[in-house]
Amino acid sequence: MRYVKPESFEAAATLLRDETGISRILAGGTDVLVQLKAEMVEPDLMVDLKHLPGMREIVAEDGGFRIGAAVSGAQLGEHDAVKAMWPGVVEGVELIGSSQVQSRATMAGNLCTGSPAGDAVPAMVTAEAVARVQGPDGVRDVPVIDIPTGPGKNSLNKGEFITSIYLPARPAHAGDCYLRFIPRTEMDIAVSSAAVSLTLDEEGTVTDARIAIGAVAPTVRLVKDAGAALVGAKPDDAAIAAMVRAVEAACSPITDKRGTIEFRTKTAGVLAKRAALIAYGRAGGQL
Amino acid sequence: MAFDAQPTRKFNVVGTRVTRPDGVDKVTGKAAYGADISAPGMLHGRILRSPHAHARIVSIDTSEAEKLAGVKAVVTGADLAMPEDADFADVAINCLARDKALYDGHAVAAVAATSKAIAKQAIRLIKVEYDPLPHVTDVDAAMKPDAPVVQEGRALENVPAGMSQNVTTYCKFGHGDLDAGFAKADKIIERSFKTAATHQGYIEPQACMASLGNDGRGEVWCCTQGQYMVRANCAAALGVEESQLRITASEIGGGFGGKTSTFIEPVALALSRKSGKPVKIVMTRDEVLKATGPTISSSMDIKIGMTKDGRITAARGELRYSGGAYPNFTVEMGAQAAFAAYDLEAVETIGWNAMTNRPKEIPYRAPGAPTAIYAVESVVDELCQELGLDPLDVRLMNAADKGTLSSYGPTFNDIGLVATLEAAKAHPHYTAPLSENQGRGLSCGFWFNFGGNTCVSLNINDDGTVGVVEGNPDIGGSRASISMMAAEELGVPYDKVRTVIADTSSLGFNDITDGSRVTFAVGLATIEAARAAIKEMCRRVAKIWDIDEDAVIWEDGCAKPAGPNAGTHPPMTLAEIAAIAGNTGGPIAGHHEVNADGAGVSFGVHLCDTEVDPETGAVKILRYTVFQDAGKAVHPDYVEGQMQGGAVQGIGWALNEEYIYGEDGRLQNAAFLDYRIPVASDLPPIETVILEIPNPGHPYGVRGVGETPIVPPLAAIANAVSRAANVRLTELPMSPPRVLKAITG
Amino acid sequence: MKTIPVATTINGDETEFLCHADESLLDVLRDRLGLTGAKEGCGTGDCGACSVMMNGRLVCSCLVLGVETEGAEIETIEGMAKGDTLHPLQRVFLEEAALQCGICTPGILVAAKALLEKNPDPTDTEVRYWLAGNLCRCTGYDKIIKAVQTAAAEMRGA
């Protein structure tokens, strides 16, 4: 394996495009080094990008925040302004792994690794976050939801990588929340998860709702019907029940060592319900 | 062994909370564990493992691996001897398979190379031709007459004909008239239970460094619970004499029974013999989970009858355990332990072991008992619920006590069960209020405890300090407790004593660190060795004072005249006697060798409060209290530590730990990510109440404490969850999907 | 595969070493530098026994490449005591018997120190969650949590 720290994003993209063997990008390393240890992958080329400009920075931009692709969970969690604006996004990132893993793991890595259970992803999806992608032919912006395409797979082309993730400005009277289910209290992969982002009007009626679920389908899913079930009312029992039905209908999980189809489906609905009520409170709503 | 006449003596050192002698090294990173040692010219060993649950090994071609630059040796099962003794043979075959791979992860070949990277590469160049065979991993399936046969011809003679050849062990214990007993019952409950295999989960993977010359002389450094056991297994597997192997036990990073066998040491020795270099092998976590020893998995039926006022009239249990791919006797201990907490007129326990395509079971803390007692205590709890009785009162009413004919044969001597139950009843935990979705459970626990073969040498140094040499690896503070007992007996301060653990060539045979035996048996031998040294010191002083030996007594660390008739001599301290030992007959030492008896059985009671999330099946442990009779607690901190650690291992077993096999018979969760041992945030504080009912079999009243604490948690939690969720849980672990399914039906 | 020279600072000492590109920091510490205080319990970031500090942050050294530490500041358990004076956490762990076998202890001490530098007065729950990535199989964590709190109180008073 060759380890390279390119001098620029462009150089990195060219290097990755021209590599004939297996290449991997090193951000936090918390997935790729595990795969190395387990002999799941033996890259010929490891490209470290953490030193490049902006990779470890959080910058205010157009009312929102641009978060460098190598910003760790711990670093993000220490940023009060991002936390105040998108608490659900930050709590999702902060749930990845242990304190040790938090020092290294990144939201961009969590996105690119393509796990349906990635804790950072659902709330990025409901925040309508946008990934900035550098490639051999330049830069493009891609909605986060379009990055993962299946377990362990993403839509980036050869030579492409994420340099930052943009969290847009949050409207007034809005709030988000991310919850996951794990068997223990820490150190597990999500068995199911849900993120909810709500916008309210002055009276507390939901005007916009986005609900994403994780670990219950090959990729994180944005459940439009579930969001629609909450719009136009306060999240009362009837609205919540309709939303939960939509969430359950959108689940197509597998049974494996971490959970059954029935369990994942049921808990995804439960988590969506609980997350919706928390997000509603964060948005200033009162039931 | 003579019982001491003074079990209630006043102690100066024993019972205090001194700092352990190996502590500074362990908080500064200096302590050397299994993987921490290297040797000049050392090679790195690595093991190739079967990807099949069950397969005939048609051929192994190592030629390509041998050609790789940097590879110095390749070995297969053919490079090990085939011991005549069946137990030794099983260990050797488990270290390197012969004609069949018996489980996913079974070792089939190994290499030694100049670097880890080359060893890894070489492993991939070994070509093994497998002929996959049908497999079986479930104990009930393995007992069916048409089940795939794991090994042929391994059944004991008393196993009835016509059963699957996988059934190797049958046992039966009990007494009384069952039919008459059940006829007297007002309520009978019969239930079936299943438990998954769990792993000891020690944080330090097995590691060793071994060297063996073509002269048959060898050295092994390894993390083990018993260096003498390693010596015996290695000598048998390598076909060398025990005297030629010197085994040194490193510091050990947890064992819990899991390091009472050998997996890599014979392989490293074989590689060393072939390459002429020292070879180091360090297992990965994946290898530890796949190929070292988990517990048995079980399937059990329990039937208990009770009168409406709570008296148990009859009890019957049938236990089906699987100890993996080899014959196994753990079920005998389970069958004996199942009803031990009860004084019963009619009881019968039957046990079966069936082989499956799983790794060889290795003991885990009170092997066999937690599962059996989980099933029994669950049924007792359900009877209490059904009859509207207080579960502690029912246990007290039926509790075994001194003089009880136990369910497995012996009559109990002094035991602390009643006192332990009374302590639980008096504790504020038992009456604390509970809220919605919360439940309280309790369970008794029992373990036999063990004494066993033990040697101790105790040397009086010329500066008045003391060296104790013992032969059992210190797995959680035993050097401290042994030093304390030596100091107590000699009447010298604790810090004047240093206890070291001998290699196999420096001290006589010792049984492994198991059976909660070390503080009891090594302590006993240490006290006797100290008494021998004291006798010798008194003899020397008698010579100096020119009086009769019997006229000198030992008191407060000094030799003194026994009384006025012995003359007026100023007391001589141990240091004074030691300083002139060369003039009075030479160095002074005491030693003691014993197959220690009188370990004294142990009982504990655990109380647990849980909250169940009815929408997800998640279980939270809210409060946990452990009550246990420890006999005399030599070092209370480490007694509490055993109680807390055992309880938390039991919590893991009850809630989330399990071996998960796929349809292909392969282990699916060979990592700490999905083999879920409890993490700090899962747990409340673990409260402890130590009862000290002296064990008459030990000079200071010491009783083993290490194993009993893992026995009650399974049922205590199952009972708490069943009460919180209002549905009886009968399968472990009670993982959230299982609990939710029980709740929602 | 050729080795790569790396210059770093370990426990305050400038340290140079050669390693392969795919070697973890843990392997470098243990096999190349003889710093065996960090332990490998899993090699996959699940147990925390290999915890060290890198540039002021707590990491699993098994999840860091050796080559990544060029120019970095590394602190390991071997640097925790100053001369013959134990860090309060080390001393209290001994006094309160917060270790049994001791294999997880170096990682837990490094992690606990990192916590107390960030949060000198944590709640028990905060300590438990911070240490959730450090598996201990012997103690049930009870005495570990209590020892961290005793040391924290002492350090706040000091």
Task: Give a quick precis of the structure.
The complex is a heterotrimer of chains A (287), B (745) and C (158). By secondary structure, chain A is α+β, with helices and mostly antiparallel strands. Chain A has helices at 9-18, 32-37, 73-77, 80-85, 87-94, 99-102, 107-112, 121-126, 224-230, 237-250, 261-282, and strands at residues 2-4, 23-26, 45-48, 58-61, 64-68, 130-135, 138-143, 148-150, 153-154, 161-167, 174-181, 192-200, 206-214, 221-222.
Describe the structure.
The complex is a heterotrimer of chains A (287), B (745) and C (158). By secondary structure, chain A is of the alpha+beta class. Helices cover 33% and strands 25% of the residues of chain A. Chain A folds into 2 domains: 2-167, Uridine Diphospho-n-acetylenolpyruvylglucosamine Reductase, domain 3, CATH 3.30.465; 174-282, Enolase-like, domain 1 (2-Layer Sandwich). The N and C termini of chain A lie far apart (57 Å). The mean pLDDT of chain A is 97. Chain B is α+β, with helices and mostly antiparallel strands and 745 residues long. Helix content of chain B is 28%, strand content 24%. A 7-stranded mixed β-sheet of chain B has the order 3-5-1-12-9-10-11, sandwiched between helices. Chain C has helices at residues 25-32, 88-95, 105-118, 124-130, 142-157; strands spanning 4-10, 13-19, 51-54, 57-60, 73-75. In chain C, 34% of the residues lie in helices and 16% in strands. Chain C folds into 2 domains: 4-79, Beta-grasp domain (Ubiquitin-like (UB roll)); 88-157, Orthogonal Bundle (DNA polymerase, domain 1). By secondary structure, chain C is an alpha+beta fold. Chains in contact: A-B, A-C, B-C. At the B-C interface, helix 1 and helix 18 of B face helix 1, helix 2, helix 3, helix 4 and helix 5 of C.
